[in-house]
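Example complex used in Figure S2.
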Amino acid sequence: MTARVELLALDGIPEIRPGDDLGAIIAGALRDADIGLREDDVLVVTQKVVSKAEGRVVDLASVSPSPPAAEFAERWGKDPRQVELVLRESAEVLRMADGGLIISRTRQGFVCANAGVDLSNVGGGEVATLLPVDPDASARRLAEGLWELAGVRVPVVISDSFGRPWRNGIVNVAIGVAGLAPLLDLRGRPDAQGRLMRSTVIAVADELASAAELAGGKTDQRPVVVVRGYTTENVKNGPGAAALVMDRAHDLFP
Amino acid sequence: MTARVELLALDGIPEIRPGDDLGAIIAGALRDADIGLREDDVLVVTQKVVSKAEGRVVDLASVSPSPPAAEFAERWGKDPRQVELVLRESAEVLRMADGGLIISRTRQGFVCANAGVDLSNVGGGEVATLLPVDPDASARRLAEGLWELAGVRVPVVISDSFGRPWRNGIVNVAIGVAGLAPLLDLRGRPDAQGRLMRSTVIAVADELASAAELAGGKTDQRPVVVVRGYTTENVKNGPGAAALVMDRAHDLFP
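Predicted assembly (508 residues):
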């Protein structure tokens, strides 16, 4: 027997605007693709469309940079209004680095570059998208909306692309989770040779986000991916992606 | 149209022993599963079976711990012989932390916990497996072996599970790559809204490793996964996973 997981990236998701009903749009795209959701599906949705639907969009023309933001932006050739938003979205700045990179802990608890603030075009205007205020709540709302529309309760993962120390490139990780446990704790279970695993806790929600990126692609043409056949223990009231955020007491790289 | 990627985890890979011809074993498992390799396949293989086949296995009984290794192990209830091997496999120790965790840069350049030294059982004995000496070379050899045996040249990724700062849990990443570019550089290409991407370089080899874990599973029963339908630019003489290792000049978290 072969274990098989499929990654199905939906075409036909239009440009999302503030106030759009993302659940209804996804349900429509599923219908158009003739994909009926199943119990062994997980829906992975990129942060950008969630943020846009939730109106987490700031018209750059409305942003007045503070002097420190303006100075840092000037030094590294960045947009001072973006730097200002990055600082506003940060609970704590870890590094402001050569080249204009800012590594910070966001208000949601994630450590990433530029606090998740992306420059984007919405309806022709130049805007910044911000992370959802509470991505786990966003995932729950989306899961509930799809349950109503599609009749099947599937877990939802909201993904964003993060860099990592020591490794080049970005990978997609989970910033919001509903309906599945983001960590698979195998401690105490035997491995293939019968040895009990002592420290194996797998960040499956992050792996689902990374897997979805392979099918969805980075240019955001396909922001919704159905992961089919990944069997996990679905949970109704799980901890969400907040469980992926390391307690600062364990943080070896402050 | 829906973009579809499949993850096919092979059953029937036996316990691997030093000297085994891993390529021949994988080719046999592919035949048994009636999976003919295709041009749009990527083969993801876990580090542990590669290390075992290559004899990167140390009988713990043969290891004499140095005094510092013995002292650290004693303090945190670790096996002093494992700590000794971790220190030997490390080019530089970054942190020796409460609880007995050692974060180091391995001789291969990867920053990870315990320098990739895993305790394992091989043939009933208690051993440690070490990372392959040159995982990119291991991937190339495996790709060439399979090319000969299966008649198709497919990229090979060797995966291992790494922790990350700031996020709980481990995810699979690529430590060896042959036949594909580990980084997909989208800088200068337009996103869905026509905005040119300025910093988007995706660590696709890491995402392939993470995706494979979802199908293969952590208990190592299925160490080989075929990723089918991920279209990438295959390269004959790529940089390997070495391209994923960040230049220390860019390292913000030494």
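Chain A touches chain B through 78 residues (CB under 8 Å). The CA atoms of residues 190 and 196 of chain A lie 4 Å apart.
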